[in-house]
Amino acid sequence: MTAVTAPAKPRLSPRKRRQRIRLAQYALLVVVALVAAFGANWTQIGHVFFDLGLARTTVAHGLGAALVHTITYTVGGFVLGLVVGTVLALMRLSDVAPYRWISTVYIEFFRGLPTLVVFIALSLLPLAFNGLVMPFDPYGTVWLALGIVGSAYMAETIRAGIQAVPRGQVEAARSLGMTSAVATRKIVLPQAFRMMIPPLTNELIMLIKDSSLVYAIGLAVGGFELTAFGKGMANDHANITPLVVAGLGYLVITLPLSWLVRRMEASAATR
Amino acid sequence: MSALTEPVVVIRDLHKSFGDNHVLRGIDVDVRQGEVVCVIGPSGSGKSTLLRCVNLLEQPDSGNVQVHGEELTDPDQDIDAARRRIGMVFQQFNLFPHKTVLDNCTVAQEVVLGRSRAEARAVALANLERVGLAERRSAYPTQLSGGQQQRVAIARSLSMDPSLMLFDEPTSALDPELVGEVLTVMRRLAEEGMTMMVVTHEMAFAREVADRVVFMDAGVIVESGPPEEVIGRPREPRTRAFLQRVLDPTHVPAE
Fold first, then answer.
1. Run of H or E including A254
2. How far, in Å, CA of A261 to CA of A197, rounded?
3. B131-182 confidence digits (pLDDT tens)
4. Looking at this predicted complex, what is its ipTM?
5. What are the E-state strand segments in B104-234?
6. How far is CA A46 from CA A41, A42, A43, A49, A50, in A?
7. From residue B8, how far is each of B4, B15, B86 by CA, in Å?
8. Which residue of B has its CA nearest to A267?
9. Which chain B residues touch A186 with a CB distance below 8 Å?
10. How much is the pTM?
């Protein structure tokens, strides 16, 4: 008859629980830091990865040129990829069925292929077709390879961006007498590209990193970009510092890029 | 007045289906020069679809739409050319968000009519003046209230010098206190003699401004005539039932 209530277990309040969990997380961090500090040979690590003298040599002996090459290869590939990607996206949305098929096959094929394979294939073209000379060599080959792969990725981004523009925008433009082509150019694409700034930035950063694959086409030293340049110097000195410097070279490109894109997004958001 | 003027819109036996849904079941409507025709009816009655068939935003399945004697439903008709003379105002405004108020009103003038930048600007400003928003010319649409956006949308259409204006529930997306400013602009437009076809739920507007009210239900025109008849003394039971629900919503018998 008398209800027997179980004795209340001493339980932590949610606030106390959270405090303890956080304490445990910090404790783990401290342990890992201590192990790293006393367990590793920092002098040797510092010499292999961060040799200041060698870093200075690396910068002085062509880091600038390599940086410029990375940028040139990437920008060319990106511009080509953007143009071809836009055409592919419009084909994918076309009323003409064969256009949709062609663009779908292209996108699926080149998205699925490792970029390296495309680079190797393009570099073998002049061999396979006797006497074929790629225009703007070596830029032409690099631009084409990055453009082919980039366009396949960007086409899907651009298609999604175009489809994200509300239907009412096209209806308003058509009601004002614009043809379908003019409405696409003046009304849909500008809005679509605004929405595509973040994903297109990702594609650009991906291309920056993919530009390192040019080593596969056997460039002359004068055409080296950051990775090939860093690798060469690292080999010559049996030290990893030049590669670390080359890696920092990529950050010199990507960090300002991220900052720029954040600003563009912010200014687009106020509209 | 209306019996004496030219017909601007002539719609004959219009049918339209979306899949199995037979939305328009044989519509006949005329709109004469300078006439204001309000189309009323319950949602799903096909009134917006009818309006969208007039500038062929929807392709009718059968029947004819003539505007200024041109057969728009003719597949060889240059629909882009015909649309230049037909202004359209949407429920959701559909202003171009990446363009300023002024550029919203100039872009079609330049790319469609081939007007110079200066001329397009002058026309746009004159029409923004008409809707009372010339001073907001540099704003972007998102910086405006709904009522202001809809007035810009009206100015954008007027900048093309249309001879016919279509309004698709122009105040339905607005907060109640913003409805008046849009209706005022529309009333002034009507008084200036614009030929207008207005799909609306604003019975006061229909009663005061319309020359003719068309009541639609289930894809057919149930009743049509002067507002004092259709809204004041509806003959058809369906019209009466609809008007009671709209005009006296707190006394609708619950089903």
1. helix A241-269
2. 7
3. 999 999 999 999 999 999 999 999 999 999 999 999 999 999 999 999 999 9
4. 0.93
5. 164-168, 196-199, 212-217, 220-225
6. 9, 6, 5, 5, 5
7. 12, 20, 11
8. B98
9. 107, 111
10. 0.82
